[in-house]
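Listing 4. Sequential folding, example run.
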Amino acid sequence: MNRLAKFIMALIGLPLSISHPMAAEMTESRQDHERIRQIASEYLLQLSTAQPGVADISVGPVDSRLNLSECQALVPFLPTGSKAWGKTTVGVRCTAPSAWTIYLRANVQITAEYYVAAHSLTKGQVLAIDDLSKIKGEISNLPVGFINNPDQAIGRAIQISVSSGTLLRLDSLKNPAVIQQGQSVRVISRGNGFEVTTDAQAITNASEGQIAKAKTANGVTLSGVAKAGGIIEISN
């Protein structure tokens, strides 16, 4: 074969020798599935810091059949109706260079301390530390408002009778009444440079800071802020 023929064949073969690298450069990069799971897990861990205790987080795998384009900024989020603990769903969204969204199953278990009734409690009973029993366990399935600090319960009155071991909740407690219906009270009316005190009889129950009503001996109904010691304050 002469030199000219070899030269022509070399020219013809040149594009073939460089076609594969060029095609590789033009192939779009694919998103790493484990990175998606990592982003979702870190997001759920961040949300769990709002809860007391220690979180154990597991995020399900991405469907291996999904071929997602590589994302420059992965944004995790909770879909509407999902919660940040227990069995839940977490979403991961990509907006650039290509838009896509994926949803992953997850389980967030949080172990922390909470309080139950140490023994039977009767309605209206003002709680003391001996009335509380501390439990350590999974809280992700507990109802909202459970007691996780004894200071949330001590000195407050329980609104319903409960048996030993019953979970204590904030919505079952209230501040004890400092004014009782039928009680003799002192109504103090204060204004700019004056103070008037009147004896009366309470016609409502009230905790400290609530509005209480009382009736004087001549039948006048007064209302003011309930204070400890059987006092109702009226500010003018």
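-- end of first protein; second protein begins --
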Amino acid sequence: MEILVCVKQVPETKDVEVDENGNLIRDGVDSIMNPYDMYALETALQLKEEHGGTVTAITMGPPQAKEVLKEAYMMGADRGYLLSDIKFAGADVLATSYTLAQGLEVIGLKDGYDLIICGMESTDGDTAQVGPAIAETLDIPHVAYVSSIEESTKDKIVVEKDMADTIEIVEFSYPGLITVTKHVKQPRLPSYKLKLETQDREINTLTFDDLPDDDETNFGLKGSPTQVEKVFPPDDDIEQVMWDGTGEELSDKMYNELKELKMI
């Protein structure tokens, strides 16, 4: 099987500043692999161990995002691709998924692929939209919120989809895409042995000029129909008030407080 895994480098802390355009200022901030992407990578590695083939990790970001691909190598990924270009900066969900789809198309033309696996969401975005949007752009079947791989062959896969109130069993033939939850597999720890073995392994870089689409208006800030009007860090100065009384008294106090704050 040829499996592609989308991974992302995210801030390790929630205390991240933003610039005037609403973009995270990542310089000087410790970063890690998005936790959900570790579950995606583990799923890919176990499928490779069962069926053979290769696992290729791809990420989009500035040059320092190579570190997340090195971490993927330490877990067992065979190849890594970095999509990096100033023209990709400021991308919203649509532009991000389109850029990743373009990169995946380049890799697919070169090596082919059966399955694309993404984490359910990223901890710095929480939209859970990029994976499905990639599949829609590539015009391939996809299943989101996969919590279990029920069966897999070299031609098809059967997955369990967590719909909160219900569980669905879905089968589709390759090529296709899934996004996985943290219940799908337990990620292995990065291997120090693999770190030594892969420290000189090549990381391929794809820029705007390497992609099939040469229209700049489809990428980055230019290709983002949604724009952030205002971003600000959460206020940690929370005032706490303790009230005593009967249920009726407390409900009256709550009503009067909300009315005074003009929240009702």
